[in-house]
Every structure is written in structure tokens, then in C-alpha cells.
Design a protein that fits this description.
The protein has 11 helices and 9 strands.
Length: 330
């Protein structure tokens, strides 16, 4: 089976909902019509970039959402539409056996569990819908845990119950966006976890990046860091692929090659902030804002000496290990 990219975070589902409901923005103004947007826009780009497994978050963490579950359900409906309309080329991953499918494999996740609306038991429905990875928070706190905006708040009792249920079901617990106290409380729970999209604070000091003790704890639990490729965490003054590889180098030196993977977090198609005067998005790195540009990222890794098994570990094998260890059998 040929080597592929495993990308742990891409907000394409949010984009599909926004383009359908709220009008076009960013580079979406270049497209006409909302029908089959996934297979007209995202599918060829994922395939061109060599992406074999894409984790797709449901995001409903904005404070103004009165019913976050409805927001997440709209995105999940777009996910089901994308899979159904492209069944010959796309499938959904629910179990470890489906990781070996030859089609593009899409897996549902949650970026923040606001869609549960405060009830841990509500996750059972999302499990049935195929959610296999979840972070407890986005930046701000919720009924389950603290986010980076409130570093002193950790897991609530509801959060502890949810973390334990994730471990029972076979859900990849994601500590992206989590507060430092949430990290400490999760460590007390002695459950495995990973981080789908972040960088290294020692390389660039930003609250979304991980401190040394967090990287060390992540490695001790057997998890993987998906190194994020947005300029505000990589280095706003030098938003280059070379600078991104600096984060990779640091993570590898501290944790070992087996704990570093990819989590690009493509958002240039979703948000309007940070655009340059010519209207081109500037939230991603120079030369890396879309999945079809993954060959450039791979070339940057190769230029820094990542080849053979070490390159494959970062591209796919580390995330595949976590998924195989965590997901249930069929």
C-alpha cells in the first residue's frame, strides 16, 4: 500500500456549512454554486497532496451559538453528504480495519465538546455518528474543562466522566487548546491522549503551543503531536516551511521521532482575518495553505534530513499507530 499523508486537523466541514449558509468569502468567491462543493474543491486537492486519511473536526465552540448541537449537526450532515456523493473515492473511518481502505479515508472528530450541551451522556449519539477523536475545549472554558484562555481551570466532574468514557469507547482524546490545569488533570486520570494541532513553545512563544513539560508528558503517554502550519503559532515574522520544520526538529529532539506527525489546520478558506491587501489569504505559511501543497512540506522535511522510515513516521505512521491502538474493531 503506498505511503500517504495522515492529517489530523482540517476545518473543511465548517467551511462547507459556511459556504452553504452564510455566503462566500476568502477564495470561495472564486467558486460558483454550492452543490457538491466537497468533491469539486476539496477532494481533488486532498488527492493531489497525497492525503490518505483526513480527520475532520465538528466545530461549535463559538460563545454565541445558542444550540451548539445544531451547528455540529449541520457539519455532520455535510460530512455524510461528502462521503455518500463520492463513495467510489471516499469512505468514513469508524474502526481500525477501515484505516486500510484504499480510498480517501475521512474520520469525524470534535474540536471542543460544546455540542454535548453540558451532558456527558450526549456523546453516545455522536459516537454512533462516527466521532472517533475529540478535544474537550476550544480556547475558552466550558462545562467539561478549561481552555487556554483560563489556564487555572481544569477538568470538571463532567469532564472526568467524559474522559473516562472516551477511553472505554476507543476515542482519541485530543488536548489541543486545553488549559495547563486540564492537562494536569488528564495526566491524573492516566488515560492516553494526543494533540492534533499545535507547535512548540520553545521555538515560538504562543499560548497555543506546548511547553516542554507538555511535550514530555505527551511522549510518556505514547501520543502524537500534529505540528500545526499556521503562521501565528509557527512564527508571524518568518512564516516559512523552514521555520515550521524548526518546530518538528524541536519536538523530535525532545520526544523522539515516533511522537511527531501532521496537523496542518488549513483555515485560509474559512476565515477572513489576516488577509493581505490583494485579497489572498495569509493565515497559512508561505507556500503552504492548501492540501495540494503537501509535496512542498515533504520537500522541506527532506531538506532537513528526514528520509525513509523517519519521514514516513511523520507523514503517516505515527498517527496510524495511535489510531490502530485506540479505535475499536469492526
Amino acid at each position: 500500500m503506498p505511503a500517504v499523508i495522515v492529517d489530523a486537523h482540517n476545518d473543511l466541514l465548517l467551511e462547507l456549512v459556511l459556504s452553504r449558509e452564510e455566503g462566500k468569502f476568502g477564495d470561495l468567491v472564486l467558486r460558483t454554486g454550492d452543490e457538491r462543493l466537497f468533491d469539486r474543491y476539496w477532494l481533488p486537492r486532498l488527492e493531489a497532496g497525497g492525503v490518505g486519511i483526513q480527520i475532520c473536526p465538528l466545530y461549535a465552540a463559538e460563545k454565541q451559538y445558542a444550540r451548539p448541537s445544531e451547528r455540529a449537526l449541520a457539519q455532520e450532515a455535510e460530512f455524510r453528504r461528502a462521503v455518500a456523493e463520492n463513495a467510489e473515492r471516499v469512505c468514513q473511518v469508524r474502526s481500525r480495519e477501515e484505516l486500510d481502505d484504499t480510498r480517501l479515508r475521512l474520520m469525524l472528530s470534535m474540536e471542543g465538546v460544546e455540542a454535548l450541551e453540558g451532558e456527558p451522556a450526549a456523546f453516545e449519539e455522536w459516537w454512533e455518528r462516527g466521532v472517533r477523536s475529540a478535544s474537550l475545549t476550544w480556547n475558552h472554558p466550558n462545562e467539561f474543562a478549561g481552555g487556554i484562555e483560563k489556564p487555572e481551570q481544569g477538568l470538571t466532574e463532567r469532564g472526568r466522566a467524559l474522559v473516562r468514557r472516551f477511553a472505554e469507547l476507543g476515542v482519541v482524546l485530543d488536548l489541543a487548546h486545553a488549559s495547563e490545569q486540564t492537562w494536569r488533570d488528564v495526566l491524573d486520570e492516566e488515560v492516553p491522549f494526543s494533540v492534533t494541532h499545535a507547535g512548540c513553545r520553545a521555538v515560538f512563544d504562543h499560548s497555543r503551543n506546548l511547553a516542554e513539560w507538555q511535550l514530555e508528558a505527551l511522549a510518556e503517554r505514547g501520543g502524537v503531536l500534529g505540528v500545526m502550519a499556521l503562521r501565528f503559532v509557527v512564527d508571524p515574522e518568518s512564516p516559512t516551511l523552514s521555520r515550521w520544520v524548526d518546530h518538528v526538529d524541536h519536538a523530535v529532539s525532545l520526544m523522539g521521532i515516533e511522537h511527531v506527525g501532521l496537523g496542518a489546520d488549513f483555515v485560509d478558506q474559512v476565515v477572513t482575518l489576516g488577509q493581505s491587501p490583494d485579497g489572498k489569504s495569509s493565515l497559512g505559511l508561505e507556500g503552504f495553505t492548501r492540501p495540494e501543497e503537501y509535496p512542498a512540506l515533504v520537500a522541506a522535511l527532506q531538506g532537513r534530513g528526514y528520509e525513509g522510515d523517519r519521514l514516513q513516521a511523520i507523514k503517516s505512521e505515527n498517527w496510524l499507530r495511535v489510531l490502530r491502538q485506540t479505535l475499536p474493531g469492526s
